[in-house]
Amino acid sequence: MRIFSVAALLLACTLLITLPSPSAPSPSPTQACHSLKFPHNQAYATCNDLLRLNSYLYWNYYPVNQTADIAFRKPKTPTSNWIAWALNPGGQMMAGSQALVAYQDPNGNMVAYTTPVSGSPTMKPGNLSFGVSNLRGEYSGGEMIIYATLQLDSTLLSTNHVWQEGPMRGGSPRMHDLSEDNMLSFGTLNFASGTVTSSSSTGGGISSKALLKNVHGILNAIGWGILMPIGAILARYLKVFKSVKLFNSVHPAWYDLHRACQIIAFCLGVAGWGIGIKLGSVSRGINFSKHKNIGIALLVMAAVQVSALIRKPNPNHKYRIYWTIYHHSLGYAIIVLSILNIFQGFKITNGHNYWKRTYAGIIIALGAVALLLEIFTWLVVIRRKKFEATNTQEIGANGGHEVNDASTNV
Q1: Is 34 annotated as a binding residue?
Q2: In the record, which residues are listed under signal peptide (predicted)?
């Protein structure tokens, strides 16, 4: 049997925010941003509809002193969320970005501050690499707005910008969703020329990374989360059919099916794990330690489990009982951890409920099949034992009569 495994490249986890604004030429008047009014009738020469997260960016650029008045507005934002916008000359991602963040505190007051995002997305207040003044936040009619004046330099006139939205918990901004919109909320802007590009017009570089994220999830769900449980079910419930074999194999059918299923599951799981490690290495500043640690533990446990097939004691060996206990215990532990980690993955990505419900349905179906097979197996075993007991009694009875007859004859 040949096992083909899948290898992986990268997924850049784009997180936060970036600040922006070109000046003179204004975008096409067909953009929705032109029809929106500000609560205090502020006026901006340039605006742009940001195609992700239903956001808008406005700015006035002053070439004399290289400053820009900007407004980042996010309609339909609940008061339980934060919004952010940032500049990142180093790339279209969170790490290295210079962000403006705003949210509403429990007392209804708007909080706005700057945060340089480095190795860890803590979003704690801090000074940026460029000057920021007149920074404030506003919430009106379900819309959250960040206002600021930026002191730019030649390296920031044309640069990357990122924007984000996420939940507040315990009075602090928490990790945003990893949905497609959140992952593609970036672009480039030129304050001087007024030109803006969005992720949808940058060649789809991130979409390939998002595809890798999906491949990572699919491989792990199929390998660890589906084939592993199926392999265990085959081993437990096909043993009652001891005489059934595949293709004249020396082993019973359940053994060959169980081994094939687990080896394929292991290969898929290793491929998915490799993609996950690569994605983690390119997602600087983002660390899902629980999900990662469970994944590492699963790989180690599965490697030990597979290697156990190589050094397996003979059925009559005195230590075989201990090997069996270890093999079964480790196998069930792997299955439980696999299912937990897959749901942890759904939680991290805030994946579509369709996929989460689909996987939950598969697990429930496998559980129902296992329950039915458990009942059926016990019925077969009980019936077989009764049949063997009846035969033993009949043989004993017949043997006794033959002995008595023989004695009489003597």
Answers
A1: no
A2: 1-25
DSSP-based three-state secondary structure for 298 = helix
How many Cβ atoms are within 10 Å of 377's Cβ, its own excluded? 15
* Torsion angle of the four alpha carbons 329, 244, 303, 318, in this order, in degrees rounded to the nearest 10: 60
Residue of 233, 171, 170, 263 lying closest to 368 (CA atoms):
233
Q: Is the dihedral of CA 249, 254, 258, 260 positive or negative?
A: positive
Q: Model pTM?
A: 0.52
| Rounded Cα–Cα distance for residues 401 and 404 (Å) | 5
Q: Which helix (H) or strand (E) holds 304?
A: helix 289-308
Contact present, 70 and 87 (Cβ < 8 Å): no
Task: For residue 155, give both structure tokens.
Answer: 């390296």
- Give tens-digit pLDDT for 173-217: 887 777 767 777 888 888 887 777 766 544 444 445 567 777 888
- Separation CA 269–CA 265 (nearest Å): 6
Structure tokens at 315: 């059925």
Does residue 53 register a pLDDT over 80? yes
**328 annotated ligand binder:** no
Q: Is the pLDDT of residue 16 over 50?
A: no
In total, the chain counts a number of residues equal to 410
Q: Is 176 annotated as a binding residue?
A: no
Q: What is the DSSP string of 151-164?
A: E--TTTSEEEEEEE
Helix/strand/coil percent split, the chain, to 5: 45, 20, 35
| pLDDT tens-digit map of 208-235 | 556 777 788 889 899 999 999 998 898 8
Residue 317 annotated in ligand binding: no
| 80 Rama class: left (phi>0) / alpha (psi -120 to 50) / beta | alpha
Q: Which residues contact 403 (CB under 8 A, 6 or more apart)?
A: none
